[in-house]
Amino acid sequence: MQRYIDQLIEDLRQAKNHVPPEPKFSEDYEEFEEQMFAIETAPDVPMKKLFGISYEELPPPEKLTEEQMQQLIDAITETWEAFNIDIYFIDEIPLPMRYEIVRDKFTSDIHYMPGWSMTFDFCSYWYPDCKIVDYCENKDEIWTKEELEEERAVNIICFL
């Protein structure tokens, strides 16, 4: 498995060589507006296209050692940083869950805008279905434990 992990890390390193250049904006206001509109309305980009790996290529956490999970998280983080993408984790999140939520990010396309920074904080902003809610202090300002459990129960019934 380590040989495969090393290949994924190398693919991520290679992706850093393909960071799209920052756009050069026109000083003419109308042209600038057109450039901004093109950036804002550009289609979302598959993670595979940007970073060279897909969700399917990242092994599930149960097939990895903690060292391998950390190696992949570090390599992904370094690659994202090259693309001006920062990540924020709540410190208490256990390593397997960290890896899982980073891996899950590869399931969806992103609206990448060269030259602009973005942050992945892994928060769904809807606490009843958030994977990391048990580690989040912000929810305590909005939800009581009972309200959160009640809302989760309602959501489960709705999906049945």
Give a short synopsis of this structure.
47% of the residues lie in helices and 4% in strands. It is mostly helical.
Structural account:
With 160 residues, the protein is mostly helical. It has a domain at 2-21 and 47-122. 47% of the residues lie in helices and 4% in strands. It contains six helices and two strands. It has helices at residues 2-15, 29-41, 47-51, 66-82, 95-105, 145-159; strands at 85-87, 118-120. The protein has a two-stranded parallel sheet. Helix 1 packs parallel to helix 4 and helix 4 (66-82) packs across helix 5 (95-105). The longest helix has 17 residues, at 66-82. It is flat.
Features:
4% strand; 2 strands; 160 residues; single chain; 47% helix; mainly alpha; flat; 6 helices; two-stranded parallel ribbon
Give the termini distance in whole angstroms: 38 Å
Number of strands: 2
**Order of strands across the biggest sheet?**
1-2
How much helix, percentage-wise, in residues?
Answer: 40-55%
**H and E order:** HHHHEHEH
Low-confidence stretches: none
Beta-strand content estimate: under 5%
Q: Please report the number of helical segments.
A: 6
Look at the helices and sheets and give the structural class.
Answer: mainly alpha
Task: Round the Cα radius of gyration to an integer and report it.
Answer: 19 Å
**Overall mean confidence score, pLDDT:** 89
Q: In this structure, how is the largest beta sheet organized?
A: 2 strands, parallel
Q: Outline, from the CA principal axes?
A: flat
